[in-house]
Write a structure and sequence with these properties.
Elements: E1 4-10, H1 27-34, E2 42-45, E3 51-56, E4 62-69, H2 83-90, H3 100-110, E5 113-118, E6 123-130, H4 134-147, H5 152-170, H6 173-185, H7 199-204, H8 207-217, E7 223-229, H9 233-244, E8 269-275, E9 281-288, H10 297-307, E10 309-311, H11 323-330, E11 336-343, E12 348-356, H12 362-378, H13 382-398, H14 403-417, H15 423-431, H16 435-445, E13 452-457, H17 465-472
Parallel strand pairs: 3-7, 8-13
Antiparallel strand pairs: 1-8, 2-3, 4-6, 4-7, 5-6, 9-12, 9-13, 10-11, 11-12
């Protein structure tokens, strides 16, 4: 008979001896926090606090222009969770001066692409267009952000669309597990809620909820206009003055990138959704990670790269450089695993996500993962660190390929940290990381620290939470 169950537990506070001294940040990391990096990115802030940032590409004929808003699902309450994502759906449904059809035809006539997305901390509206059409795309973005009609009939139609989207997300087990991981790691806190929101909220969100969210969060000090590619900084500043200077300032304005809420508390606990009709076990284990601003941000990424990723379908198995892939492949312990270092403005999650069909080998699978985390603290080699640094640099620099990717990097960095680190500075920082930096990171964030666990599917073989948690106390042996 299939078994379905949900278990939700919190770890009691531990009195074990903990490291009370914070490892000194390497000078390279401390320096870039204090000194803005030289880059081709230009910045201007209007009198109302609205920020404009550009990076011009020589000879480019197209541009990406977008508005990054320092507000996502984290800016919601339990009652209106899902509002930010709901607004994203309504953004292209017409404004006070354009119907939905007029907006779509106008964009098509320009040959432009208009898009939007919502995350836990940001909402983004952006357009890609020809160089000559940048003024028009800026005007359209301003119209959408400040004059969306929010027609009741459109609101009612989008409820069904969002509910169908939620149903599709439920079929993507990785999304399900990571939503539960956030919920269990940041219990009863905004960062732990989903982006789409619960079904009851989707059905009950009103026009007043949407307009109140806009009034509270779409303020000049929380918005950044970013342009990359075929853009001129002074011209974009002039366009911002024309279309965004009337944006209201929040009641308690702070500089862009500054904390707006208190740091969430990480809760050591687990959630298990057992469904024996699912032939796989999907398991995520995470420690509290680092924020975008933390001096240990890049050492955390190097440590993540050392653990690495592996997928049986790729056939690389024991030939990969990371040791965990060789052990998992040789012993047929998993179908795949992915290490992750997810950062937010003031906290993060660092850990690993497994998918396995070897249900009797889950105990061994988690054991070898903890063993690799132990090695990070004690015996990681210089060769591993250098290989991870090379992989990290390639990944970070390849992610900046194209005007949209660069715009996203600028926008995200500005709204979360208040500044932008150039690609050359990133390369220099990563090059400076040593074996000691990786060991210090592991000892500071992994050794005898609480963990959050989210599991879905055939998870009966997963160890009890306390037995998993006890393994972290030996990570420094």
């Amino acid at each position: 008979m299939p078994v379905s169950a949900v278990l939700f537990r919190s770890a009691a506070s531990r009195t074990a001896i903990r490291r009370t001294t914070r490892a000194a940040a390497p000078r390279a990391f401390a320096r870039f926090l204090a000194t803005p990096a030289a880059s081709n990115t230009k910045f201007t802030t209007l009198r109302n606090g609205f920020t404009i940032a550009t990076e011009e590409f020589p000879y480019a004929q197209t541009a990406t222009v977008g508005v990054w808003i320092d507000a996502g699902s984290r800016a919601e309450t339990e009652a209106n969770n899902g509002t930010a994502h709901f607004l994203e759906h309504l953004a292209f449904k017409g404004t006070n001066s354009r119907t939905q059809q007029q907006l779509e035809v106008e964009i098509e006539n320009l040959g432009a692409h208009l898009n939007a997305y919502t995350s836990r901390e940001n909402t983004v509206y952006y357009a890609k267009s020809f160089k000559s059409d940048v003024p028009k795309t800026v005007e359209i973005l301003a119209d959408i952000l400040q004059n969306s009609k929010l027609d009741q009939s459109a609101i009612d139609r989008e409820r069904d669309v969002i509910l169908r989207e939620a149903e599709e997300v439920e079929k993507q087990y990785e999304e399900v597990v990571f939503d539960h991981l956030h919920a269990v790691a940041f219990q009863a806190q905004p960062l732990g809620r989903t982006i789409l929101g619960p079904k009851e909220n989707i059905l009950s969100i009103t026009r007043d909820d949407l307009t109140n969210y806009i009034k509270t969060n779409y303020t000049s000090d929380r918005l950044v206009l970013v342009g990359t590619g075929a853009v001129n900084h002074d011209e974009l500043v002039a366009l911002a003055e024309k279309h965004f200077s009337s944006l209201p300032v929040s009641s308690s304005p702070v500089p862009i990138g500054s904390p707006r809420t208190s740091k969430p508390q990480f809760v050591g606990s687990d959630v298990r959704i057992r469904d024996d009709e699912v032939p796989f076990a999907h398991i995520a284990i995470a420690f509290e990670g680092v924020s975008w601003k933390d001096p240990d941000y890049y050492p955390a990424l190097v440590a993540q790269a050392i653990i690495g990723n592996w997928d049986r379908s790729l056939g690389s198995g024991s030939f990969l450089g990371n040791k965990l892939s060789a052990v998992v492949s040789q012993n047929n312990l998993a179908n795949s695993f992915t290490s992750f270092s997810t950062s937010y403005s003031d906290t993060g999650l660092w850990g690993i996500y497994f998918i396995t069909q070897n249900l009797t080998g889950i105990d061994d699978l988690t054991h070898f993962a903890f063993n690799e985390w132990r090695r990070l603290s004690t015996s990681v080699s210089e060769a591993e660190v250098e290989r991870a640094k090379a992989q990290l640099k390639a990944s970070l620099l390849l992610s900046l390929d194209g005007t949209t990717a660069v715009a996203e990097d600028i926008g995200r960095q500005l709204v979360t940290t208040g500044r932008r680190i150039s690609a050359s500075e990133i390369e220099r920082i990563v090059d400076a990381i040593t074996v000691t930096d990786v060991q210090n990171f592991a000892q500071k964030y992994l050794w005898d620290k609480d963990i959050a666990v989210a599991a879905f599917g055939s998870v009966e073989g997963l160890l009890d939470y306390n037995r998993l948690r006890n393994q972290t106390a030996s990570l420094r042996w």
